[in-house]
Specification:
The protein is of the alpha+beta class and 187 residues long. The protein has helices at residues 29-99, 105-116, 129-135, 170-185, and strands at 123-127, 144-148, 157-161, 164-168.
Length: 187
């Protein structure tokens, strides 16, 4: 560009070389300059919008990555906490049912005897005094003796056999369930 323009010359300084040039047919130089400025303004607006969209997309991608990282960290903890909560709810329900004598102590004793492996051999079944009272009218095999034991909580069963003692403890059963589920989940 010329630093000393002639009086009949229009000088326009552009930040970079134009991509194309066209000659305006009729009209004043100011109309031509206005058209050029509008075209540049429109191009600038479009470029600004494109950059804004790119910035917004980048911010959205970063936020999405942070959310995925948080989920990867928190979901296993959430699943583990859900298992723990479910087992604690089950424990509360079991305790409430036992407190109301809604547990099937006969079934618990028979299942524990079956698990003991003594067959028809002699054994002593230790249960709480309240459970022993409930079991009095129930007939068990001839070698089985039901004994009230104040040390055994209601709902629990301890079977003494010639091979050892088999304990069916409600809290231990729930703890075993919790451990098994955590193991299956890998937590």
């Amino acid at each position: 560009m010329s630093s000393n323009p002639r009086s009949d010359e229009l000088v326009v300084e552009l930040p970079r070389a134009p991509r194309s040039v066209r000659l305006a047919a009729a009209g004043s130089e100011s109309e031509y300059l206005g058209a050029c400025l509008r075209a540049e303004f429109d191009r600038g607006v479009l470029e600004g919008r494109r950059e804004s969209v790119e910035d917004a997309a980048g911010a959205l991608n970063r936020a999405s990555e942070k959310l995925e990282e948080a989920c990867a960290r928190l979901v296993p903890d959430l699943a583990s906490s859900a298992v723990d909560l479910a087992v604690e709810i089950a424990r509360s329900i079991v305790r409430a049912e036992i407190a109301q004598n809604h547990h099937d102590i006969e079934k618990i004793v028979r299942e524990t005897l079956a698990a003991s492996g003594v067959g028809r051999g002699a054994c002593v079944v230790h249960v709480s005094p309240l459970d022993a009272e409930r079991l009095k009218p129930i007939g068990f095999r001839s070698g089985t003796k039901i004994e009230a034991d104040p040390e055994v909580p209601a709902g629990d069963v301890h079977v003494t056999t010639p091979h050892g003692v088999l304990v069916r403890d409600q809290d231990e059963v729930l703890a075993a369930i919790r451990t098994r589920i955590h193991g299956e989940m890998g937590t």
